[in-house]
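Page 47, continued from p. 46.
Same chain as before, 623 aa.
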Amino acid sequence: RVEMADTVGAQSTDSVVHSGQAESESERERHWKAVRGNPDDFSGWTQLLQAVDGEEELTGAREAYDAFFERFPYCYGYWKKYADLELKKGSIETALKVYRRGVKAIPLSIDLWLHYIEFCQQYIYHSSTDSHAVENQRRLYEEAIRTAGLEFRSDRLWQAYIDWSKVQNELPLVIQLYDRLLATPTQQHTKHFEQVRDFVYSHPPQYLMTPQEYQTLWTEVNQGADGSIEGDPSRGLERVKDRLLTQRQMIYQRTEEDVQKRWSYEEGIKRPYFHVKALDKVQLDNWTQYLDFEISQGNPERVHLLFERCMIACALYEEFWMKYARYMESHSVDSAREIYRRACAVHLQSKPAIHLAWALFEESHESVDAARQILSGIGEKYPSLLSVRLQQIGLEIRCGQLDRASELYDAAFASARTPEEKSFLSSHRAGFIMRTLGDAGRAKGVLRDGLALDPSNYSLYLHLINMELAGNTSESEILSLFDQAQSTAMPDAHKQSLEQKKIQFLQQFGSNPHILKTSIEQYERRHGAVVLGRKRSQKRDSEPVAKVAKVNSDIGVDEEGGEQEESQDQQTLMQQQWAAYQAAVQANAVNPVQAAAYYQAATAGQQAMWPFQQQFASQQQQT
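Result:
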């Protein structure tokens, strides 16, 4: 009975263990499914990492952490967690490899460097009597200082190296480190000078330098004009210390000037670490202004460092990566290429604009195949994004591959989902056929085919009319095209614009004054505007709230002074509204649905918004 009870108990324990493992694997797969479906979901990744941290086996955790760092390498805290996990369940060697990967991925992380150094002191260089261990530890500190020592908030790293050197009783090394630190603008530079002063006055100067250096300095400060040594030896030591401090005070004062120039910018950096939460506009502007200032100072090393700091805090913002790449392009094409690669392959895998910029960069440096590959990759991810299609087409046109460009137009048109998209492509393709292939008839045919699909499209009509005006088309055919546009469901503001263009055409090229007279009278009845310099007798309550002043003046519309001023004010307001909308889109503050609502609210009641409607339509298609 005892044996049977033991057997049943063991089976029960095994059942519980297997059940727990099954639940753990199920939870892990659920989180994996979530992040595979949305790789940009940071919270989904953190939930996955939390799930695998509790597993006994390291295989699942390693897979999860490695995949996480492929997208979010700037999360220094998770590098520390990964190293701790390897130390606990793996080995010292595997933990050491994680730390090495971490400081390579985010080399300016002072916290990660300090954790790495502490780990090596405890597990790698734990023997203080081993000369090789001491030398290796010194090399590690030097590597950290070379890599991250110029960071404005690197004070703790410098202090750790100095404190370690004091423990090793390497006083000449300590004074050398202080000299390097005093020449480096850091957050606690004043505190460091005070430490140097205390250090110099608390140690015999002969222990802070080589015997030859000490003898030279002693003679310099104590020797009189006749070559004799002045005063007693104790006072001579004080003079040596004073000279040592005076030399370092001069370094400190130069550095103080550099710190003061940058202090306001540094104060504006509220979040120097990486986070997926958006930065506010004040901080983004501060980074932009700080970078512009540092570039103006002309020190490439400091500019490079500041850009790398900025990339940590602003890793998810395309404009900073592009600013960085464009700056580096003038110094090193390969360095600029690597910046684009980091942005597109790691941090901004789903952002089209930076990929388009990278492709254009490669094309401009005669790496056409690389540009094609980049555009193909982002095109597969966003097959309906017209800006990608158009850049692919433009590349082939510039390379003289006109057949390939035509094939891409066909593919883009076939995949277009809405009449508006097809109209947009028809307009572009007509321009390509007319300008590049020189086939006006075929170009007009493309525009007419587009109008058959989208009969009220203002842009297609305008393009076709301009093309007809530039050719040998008869007056009657052109007037018929104007009249055809008026019979569509096109918005009134667009119709008014085409009527104005018709009157302008008749004024310049018309053969029948009666047609011109009739067109002007119809325009005045419909819109309450006056042409040919005549004053109207009265204002109409139904007239548009605003008119496009420039268009009216181009065709000779004479408005009363007060209304002209009002129209210009209204135009300025509309431009401000459009600029605000564009800024919101660029800052990812609106999605397409919110953008449409914003646009409708901003332009409610406006009757002359066609230039902005065109821009908005193009922007919305790209979004």
